Amino acid sequence: MHALNKMNAIVRAGNLFRAARLEGTGVNACDRPYLFYICHHVGVSQDTLSGALFVNKSSVARRLAHLEKEGFVTRTPHEADRRVLLVSPTEKARAILPLLREMAHEWNGIITEGFTEEEIAVFSRLLERAYDNAQNAAKEIVNEADF
Questions:
Q1: Fewer Cβ within 10 Å of end Cβ, the chain: N or C?
Q2: By CB neighbour count within 10 A (0-12 exposed, 13-18 middle, 19+ buried), where does 66 fall?
Q3: In angstroms, rounded to a whole number, what is the distance separating the alpha carbons of residues 22 and 143?
């Protein structure tokens, strides 16, 4: 299996791990990045969230509708432009952040089990470089797509 396919498999396995841990909370595995971003960027616009997470606008709208229905976020129109919706976390979202952080820490431990501290540092640096490359490529694509 090619290394990039293995990265995709790690992501899918992580989603299975998170889904099992989040069962019964009203949060799905794919909601995690939304909640982290919204809790750290209160009042973010849906469009900004779309760009930050590299997810198309319609997918963001669907995820946010789910999170709003479950009581994790509120969406309010921007005062200057009522077409822009600003997203804020509720207390319910803030209350689940410790579980989300714990899960992230646990998953990172699982996937780096048996790694030395040096290997973890190298792995982290390589992932940062890959992320930067992906982010730069996505920025170019965003200009051509509906993100």
A1: N
A2: middle
A3: 35
Residues of the chain with pLDDT under 70: 1, 142-147
Q: Which long-range contacts (CB under 8 A, 24 or more apart) does 81-85 make?
A: 84/45, 84/46, 84/47, 85/45, 85/46
Tell me the whole-structure pTM to 2 decimals: 0.85
Domains and CATH numbers, the chain: 3-111 (1.10.10.10)
Pairing of strands 73-77, 44-45: unpaired
Element (H, E) at 45: strand 44-45
Give the pLDDT of residue 147. Answer: 45
**CB contact set of 97 (below 8 Å; sequence gap of 6+):** 35, 36, 39
| Amino acid identity, position 42 | V
**Residue 26, burial from CB neighbour count under 10 angstroms (0-12, 13-18, 19+):** middle
